Structures are given as C-alpha cells and as structure tokens.
C-alpha cells in the first residue's frame, strides 16, 4: 500500500468524512454553533475556519491517503482557534501547547498504524515551528474502541472527541484528570526520543548497521631502483598522495648496496 500525507487545505477538505467536513464542534463556541446548525451553515463555517487558520497560523491538519484514497486525517492548532474547547471542565489548554482537536482513521484502514503515523507527522510539524513544547488533547474515557470502527458507516462513525485509550496508545499522558473528559498531554521531546529509539531498534533488528571501518595497513618496505620504498619513505608518501617525490638531498633515500648500486672499484 502506498501512503501519502497531505496538508489540509480548502482543496482537500471534501476528502474528510461528510460529517467531519461540515462539523464545527471545535471551531465555534456553543452559541455560534447552535446558530450555524439552525441556519444550515456549518459547512461554510468550517471552510471559513480552515481559510483563517491557514492564513494566520499555517498548516492546521493533515490528510492521509492510501493508494490515492482518503484514509484518515488530523486537526490541530493553538487553543485560541478552537473556542469549542472552552466548554470542557478540564480546559484551558496549557500556554506552551497546541491543541489536538480531533483525528480519524477510516474503518477500512483501522489497525494499519495510520493513527500513529498521523501523530508523528503532527509532532514533526510542531518541532519545526519552534516555541512549542507539547501537544494536548481532550480525551473521552467512554469513546469508541478500535473494534467499534468497522461497524460504523463512513459518514457517521467516530465522534468529535478523541477516545482516551487512543491517546494513551500514541504516547499521551493524563495532564488533568476527569471521569469523562481528561486533558491529556504529549511532550514533543519525549515523542521525538521515542521515535529515535524505535528507529534504532528496527535498524538493529534488520541488521542495517554500518560496518566498523578498519584502519588502512601500511605497505611493507621494498626496494625499487636501488632505493628503499617503505611506509614512511618519500616515494611511498608521494605514491599515496599523487604528488611527485621529493628529489632534494634531504628527500632522497640512501642507496642500498647489492640492489642495483655500482661498486666504486667497477667505475
């Protein structure tokens, strides 16, 4: 299966499930959300929110594709962009954190690891931005489990609040406890360390380890043209460096008798 992650924009907003693409649970406060529901304007409010977030803050979500088909998405931004979060007893979100509003993996792709991939992508994005220490989310202790996804239709499954057990599986810890809606936190530094440890373990498992480099052995000294050519000789050093040998008196090696040298009496 070929996986691809794309930034959430107005162009691919329609790739979200129908109920999610027109949902403004997090994007509007309770009063404005009720008005939008009665007027049938929630889809327009969602588009306006995405446009505003992209212009003011930048990328606010990711959409996952498998073999070209939508398979999941994640939505995140500073808490000020999600006034709907103020209705929870465990609000507000910490000042050094970004709010993970919701995430979804389509039923056909549940259990394939896409949820963890989406979280890792969000963490990488926030680390690149700088000045952000954590990712926080409101969890639902009574949210649907993994086995419940397959029995739901593509436009009705899931909910606006992430299941607490899903957040725990991808590395979140409880920041502020609550019987139903705890606020949970994922430290970016911890998430990166976990990723590095997993990648290192996979390399050891697969044997993808760089071989230890052995030091090069020096060539044995030998006699060439009446001169001693060894590991430290000028000729050997010149051969290794590609430079011409030093022909000065200091750079010449002493002749060796019996190896091409002419005795004085024979001249």
Give structural notes.
The protein has 267 residues and is of the alpha+beta class. The chain has 2 domains: 3-206, Gcn5-related N-acetyltransferase (GNAT) (Aminopeptidase), CATH 3.40.630.30; 222-259, no CATH class. Helix content is 31%, strand content 20%. The chain has 8 helices and 10 strands. It has helices at 18-21, 30-39, 42-56, 114-129, 146-149, 164-169, 188-206, 234-241, and strands at residues 3-7, 61-66, 69-77, 97-105, 134-140, 162-163, 173-176, 183-187, 222-224, 227-229. Strands 1, 2, 3, 4, 5, 6, 7 and 8 form an 8-stranded mixed beta sheet that branches. Strands 9-10 form a two-stranded antiparallel sheet. A hairpin with a 2-residue loop joins strand 9 (222-224) and strand 10 (227-229). Helix 4 crosses helix 7. It is globular. Residues 149-158, 197-212 and 258-263 have low confidence and may be disordered.
Brief summary of the model shown:
The chain is of the alpha+beta class and 267 residues long.
Defining key terms:
267 residues; alpha+beta; Aminopeptidase; 2 domains; eight-stranded mixed sheet; two-stranded antiparallel sheet; 8 helices; 10 strands; 31% helix
| Total DSSP E strands | 10
What is the approximate shape? globular
CATH architecture of the largest domain: 3-Layer(aba) Sandwich
Q: What is the helix tally? A: 8
Relative strand content: 15-25%
Rg, nearest Å? 33 Å
**Domains counted in the coordinates: how many?**
2
CATH class of the largest domain: Alpha Beta
Order of helices and strands: EHHHEEEHEHEHEEHEEH
SSE class: alpha+beta
User: What is the terminal-to-terminal distance?
Assistant: 85 Å
Relative helix content: 25-40%
């Amino acid at each position: 299966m070929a996986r691809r992650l794309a930034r959430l924009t107005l162009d691919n907003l329609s790739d979200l499930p129908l109920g999610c693409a027109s949902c403004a649970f997090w994007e509007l406060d309770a009063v404005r959300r009720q008005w939008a529901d009665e007027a049938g304007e929630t889809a327009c409010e969602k588009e306006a929110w995405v446009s505003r977030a992209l212009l003011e803050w930048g990328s606010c979500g990711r959409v996952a594709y498998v073999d070209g088909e939508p398979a999941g998405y994640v939505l995140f931004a500073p808490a000020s962009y999600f006034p709907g979060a103020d209705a929870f007893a465990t609000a507000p979100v910490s000042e050094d954190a970004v709010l993970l509003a919701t995430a979804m993996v389509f039923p056909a792709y549940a259990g394939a690891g896409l949820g963890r991939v989406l979280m890792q992508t969000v963490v990488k994005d926030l680390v690149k931005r700088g000045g952000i220490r954590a990712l926080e989310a409101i969890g639902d202790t009574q949210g649907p489990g993994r086995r419940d996804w397959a029995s739901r239709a593509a436009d009705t499954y899931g909910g606006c609040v992430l299941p607490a057990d899903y957040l725990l599986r991808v590395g979140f810890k409880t920041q502020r406890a609550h019987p139903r809606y705890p606020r949970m936190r994922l430290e970016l530094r911890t998430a990166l360390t976990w990723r590095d440890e997993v990648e290192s373990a996979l390399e050891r498992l697969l044997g993808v380890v760089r071989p230890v480099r052995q030091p090069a052995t020096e060539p044995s000294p030998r006699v060439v043209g009446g001169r001693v050519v060894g590991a430290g000789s000028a000729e050997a050093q010149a051969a290794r460096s590609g430079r011409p040998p030093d022909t000065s008196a200091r750079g010449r090696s002493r002749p060796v008798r019996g190896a091409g040298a002419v005795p004085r009496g024979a001249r």
